[in-house]
Write a structure and sequence with these properties.
This protein is mainly α. The protein has six helices and no strands. The protein has two domains: about 50 residues; about 30 residues, no CATH class. The protein is elongated, with a radius of gyration of 33 Å.
Amino acid sequence: MKRSTEQGKKTWRYVEAILTDWFDKGFKKTSEVEAYQLEFKEKQAQKQNKVTPYRRGSARIEVVPEWLQKNPAVESNEPVNIKELEDRKRKMDQMFQKINP
């Protein structure tokens, strides 16, 4: 009865199912049941901690190409040409205005 209330189940049918399960497993003493419950809880904890591809904490590692890892603005030793950047921005703004008047 204690186990059924811990699980939030208060029907006799649930209690009967637990007792039938214990009988099928051949338990004769409460110590056997307690050992089984402890073992079951440990297995459940291991399952929850186990990383699988379908759960959070996936062990998948993304392969990122080298060119993506490099930051050209930081690695470039060339001076930044402000005028050229402004011209490119102006051209892009003009293209945008043609698309979205």
